[in-house]
Design goal:
The protein has 27 helices and 22 strands. By secondary structure, it is α+β, with helices and mostly antiparallel strands. The strands form six sheets. Strands 1, 2, 3, 4, 5, 6 and 7 form a seven-stranded mixed beta sheet that branches. Helix 22 crosses helix 24. The longest helix is centred in the last third of the chain and has 33 residues.
Length: 746
């Protein structure tokens, strides 16, 4: 795939977006009168005195503090306020941007903010303030609890999210000043997992794209440089330009008498990288990394232009999407199609391009989402979109059992790739990409999800593991005797379904864990020759800090605490005489296992920390750990009694696991060295290498790499995939071993 030299152009001079105005690095801090004039120019209700007061208050509170760049810290809230003003948000939101860090980083309190600036502004500031003054078990739990508070605040007032996104955007623009590489990577990953999807969910594509690209270069710097270098190389070696195609498209529309404004762009490095991962192909094989936006006067012209494009150029089947008749949940509306522009005098080489056809109003909504039709104080109604988003946020918070669960569910729920399916009565149900009928059932109602047994998709009976496609009509078949299965958790994509399945399974398992815990406690009391009385267990409950004795037994049965700990808590004054369990090094980092059971890792799928896993109990062998999508598990579908619900404990950076890769490498001098260097640069260690096949042009390699977890292995795969010496790379699945195992079961 060849790429034009120019990355953006237009049939007419393109005006910069409102966010591009704030992008250039500038050290001069915006004066308070400049900010007040800027806000007053679009919001006639602006209280300039209150805005000036907030400016001075923030400057005084931050005092002489400086940022990693050496700039006064006060420059950050002013830049955040400037971004909000560029988006033409109401003056109270701009004031919240000025004050958003005062409670977190200075001696100011929410009460003081409320007394000086009012309840609404104080609520906005409180919504974006992290819980740094609260003690948590770890940084991860701190982040999760902060996110819970953030979601609750967003559900009440969506402006909290807008302030937070502006805050994160400026922090990402200046992230290169942070000297700690690990800290930069952590912030970048958090941005990719949480804040960019949030920006997409409210339709703010401009902010989403900038957040993704800024985070991409810090989270995966080597991959970013590789993708950017390949794009530059392809662009420099292509004699054609986007102007050529723009003129060709404009000519086709003008010939039909349609007024149109066309602009073209190369998709962002992050968007290209995600597409490379999804399709498992290099940059050259991507057909539509160039996109053109066609802006037309009204809806009818959009469909007319679509017809003209399809008559003039050959379209790629399956690539047409109508988001005008069926908008995305974030309000995005546009027609998408991919066409092949043939070689001609205007375009010397045949090109495959993506076309996005929309009106000016649709374009503004696509770029700036809720900010394009802001309703606070400006009298513009965008209430339906806000209400839908806030309803989702409330449902997400209510169906999550704890803060970490909420954070995990949000990552699943708000990723941008979404599909729209229909109930038999025509109700639209929006789901993330790769969703299954189980997700659909829980989206309709929790009871429907808990009792579903199969699905009828477009009139054909399908399994619950079937991946839904955009436009499918789905009918869920239920049974009152059915209940969620543990392996369902590995099939679903939505946080709502995942939480409901977990909750139901935990309710079922609670009785089983309690019974097992009771047996384990009985045994350890018997070995210690001490009475297992109600009074002793009540003492243990109080000492361990549980609400009920049953809670203690459940924790023992689920291997969260050891039965010896209960014994020690029941007899706190007799520690020296109590038996102590001796444990060696190399403890299995998996929860949900019965103490003392033998554990094996399946060689058919090579499970790694961070992946969804399931345990299979085998008589005389113990528990074998598989990934949730391992094909071997199909042989156990009819044996639910063998399934054990297990999960990885929090990863320890010191623990290493083996991931196996299948690599097709160019047979050229230095290729093996390049591959080894990339793995080493990404903190991987090759411990075994096998060449099962070799040809004149390629090596087929099996490479065992020591990694920390699945994310570590994914980063290595991504870095290798961007190298020109790597023809293909994928996680190895031992199909021969899987077939042998399944045959033995049969």
């Amino acid at each position: 795939m060849s790429i034009p030299r120019s990355s953006t152009t237009s049939a007419e001079t393109r005006a910069p977006s409102v966010l591009e105005v704030t992008r250039p690095a500038r050290r001069r801090i915006m004066r308070q009168y400049e900010l007040a004039e800027k806000v007053s120019s679009y919001d006639r209700n602006t209280d300039e005195n209150l805005l000036n007061k907030a400016y001075v208050f923030a400057m005084q509170m931050h005092g002489g503090a400086t940022r990693a760049s050496g700039d006064p810290y006060f420059s950050h809230p002013v830049e955040v306020a400037g971004i909000l003003a560029d988006l033409k948000l109401d003056y109270m939101t701009v004031i919240a941007g000025l004050l958003h860090d005062t409670v977190e980083d200075t001696s100011a309190t929410v009460e003081r903010i409320e007394a000086a600036f009012g309840q609404d502004i104080a609520r906005l500031v409180d919504g974006v303030t992290k819980l740094n003054l609260v003690e948590f078990d770890s940084q991860q739990s701190r982040q999760a609890e902060s996110f819970r508070k953030f979601v609750v605040a967003m559900a009440e007032d969506i402006r909290v999210l807008l302030v937070k996104l502006a805050d994160r955007l400026h922090n990402m623009r200046t992230l290169h000043h942070v000297p700690d590489t690990a800290k930069r990577a952590r912030i970048a990953v958090e941005t990719l997992e949480i804040y960019a999807p949030l920006a997409e969910r409210i339709g703010m594509q401009t902010i989403q794209t900038e957040l993704e690209d800024l985070a991409f270069r810090h989270a995966h710097p080597q991959v970013y440089d590789s993708v950017r270098t390949r794009l530059e190389y392809l662009s420099e070696n292509n004699p054609h330009t986007i102007e050529d195609i723009s003129r060709e498209l404009t000519r086709a529309c003008c010939t039909a008498g349609i007024e149109v404004r066309i602009s073209g762009r190369i998709k962002s490095p992050y968007a290209i990288w995600t597409k490379m991962q999804r399709k498992n192909v290099p940059v050259e094989q991507l057909s539509d990394i160039v996109a053109f936006r066609m802006i037309l006067p009204d809806h009818e012209d959009c469909y007319r232009a679509l017809g003209i494009m399809h008559r003039a150029y050959r379209m790629l089947p399956g690539r047409f999407k109508d988001f005008i008749s069926t908008p995305k949940p974030n309000g995005y509306r546009s027609l998408h199609t991919v066409v092949i522009i043939p070689k001609s005098r205007a375009v010397p080489m045949s090109r495959t391009v993506e076309l996005q056809i929309r009106t000016e109003k649709m374009h503004q909504t696509a770029e700036f989402g809720v900010a394009a039709h802001w309703s606070y104080k400006l009298g513009i109604n965008g209430g339906q979109d806000f209400a839908k988003i806030q309803e989702e946020l409330r449902a997400l918070e209510q169906t999550s059992e704890n803060s970490q669960d909420l954070l995990d569910n949000a990552k699943l729920q708000m990723y941008p790739q979404q599909i729209c399916c229909f109930t038999p009565k025509g109700r639209m149900v929006f789901l993330p990409g790769n969703a299954t009928p189980i997700d659909f059932a829980y989206a309709v109602h929790t009871e429907v999800g808990d009792t579903c047994v199969s699905a009828r998709i477009n009139g054909v009976d399908r399994r619950l593991s079937t991946t839904l496609r955009n436009g499918d009509q789905v009918e869920i078949i239920t049974s009152t005797t059915s209940a969620p299965k543990p392996f369902w958790e590995g099939l679903v994509q939505t946080g709502r379904a995942r939480s409901a399945i977990r909750r139901h399974i935990r309710q079922q398992e609670r009785g089983q864990f309690s019974a097992l815990g009771s047996q384990l406690v009985d045994r350890v009391f018997l070995l210690a020759d001490l009475p297992r009385t109600a009074a002793a267990l009540e003492t243990a409950r109080i000492t361990l800090g549980f609400d009920t004795v049953e809670d203690v037994l459940v924790e023992v049965g689920s291997s969260t605490i050891m039965p010896e700990k209960v014994l020690q808590a029941a007899f706190p004054g007799r520690q020296d005489s109590l038996p102590v369990r001796r444990t060696g090094t190399g403890t299995v980092p998996i929860t949900g296992l019965t103490p003392g059971v033998a554990v094996h890792y399946a060689h058919c799928c090579h499970p790694l920390p961070g992946e969804r896993i399931v345990g299979i109990m085998t008589t005389g062998k113990g528990v074998t750990i598989h990934t949730i999508d391992c094909e071997t598990l199909e042989g156990f579908q009819s044996m639910p009694e063998k399934w054990i619900d297990v999960a990885w404990e929090l990863a320890n950076d010191a623990d290493l696991h083996v991931g196996r890769l299948r690599v097709v490498l160019a047979n050229a001098p230095g290729s093996l060295g390049v591959m080894s260097t990339i793995i080493g640069q990404n903190d991987g260690n090759i411990i075994n290498l096998k060449i099962p096949r070799r040809s004149e042009d390629f090596f087929d390699l099996l490479v065992d790499v020591e990694v920390r977890d699945i994310r570590h292995l994914t980063h290595i795969i991504a870095a290798l995939r961007a190298s020109p010496v790597i023809t293909s790379i994928e996680r190895d699945r031992d199909e021969e071993r899987t077939e042998t195992y399944q045959a033995a079961l049969a």
